[in-house]
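In full, the data:

***
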Amino acid sequence: MALLITEECINCDLCPAECPNEAISMGDDVYQINAARCTECVGHYDEPNCMAVCPVECIEKDPAHNETLDQLAEKYAAMYA
């Protein structure tokens, strides 16, 4: 499942630098996560780095992009093949 940044985001600028897949960019009002690039850090870390550094805990699983760990691993492998 890709991740989603909610409207509670304070644009602290911490998460984009922590994303190894470069999936986070500035949206109209708050940062956004590109679901096609988000692997929840599978292939890189044990947990999503963006969630770990977020001071307001505004990053959550995106129910619109439900993926298993195997699917996230396949996405990672395809991006870094």
Observations:
- Helices lie at 15-18, 49-53, 69-79.
- The chain has three helices and four strands.
- The radius of gyration is 12 Å.
- The chain has a mean pLDDT of 96.
